[in-house]
Amino acid sequence: DANGxxxxxxxxxxxxxxxxxxxxxxxxxxxEKYERDAELRATGKLLPVPSNQKxxxxxxxxADICNIPKNLTTHVARHTFACLAxxxxxxxxxxxxxxxxxxxxxxxxxxxxxxxxxxxxxxxxNEQMFSDDVFLLNQ
Length: 139
Fold this sequence. Notes:
The protein is mainly alpha-helical.
């Protein structure tokens, strides 16, 4: 785009709604790694894409190696991304768009609000209230 950001435009699997995803530096490095792969070029793909079943098998293997007792799946990864995005301050409506949700209520099911996030937001509100002299105590 005009800012030099590379985007992926791809229709969503379930809804066929066009998804637009800006690429951060690390994904760009991965794309560069595979850009000359003859097998991928022949199929018209940018990255090797295992099936969902195979990806979940890889995640299970990683969980076993790392002694993670949770059953890791691509769906769990999606939830984790949503929770981290909210923790780092991404607005829920932006996250909904990234996840392909037409309604932010669905997105709210994906996220969990940690005590750290709640505490941070309350501190921000407190700072704004008192720095703007919104509340004047005992005057």
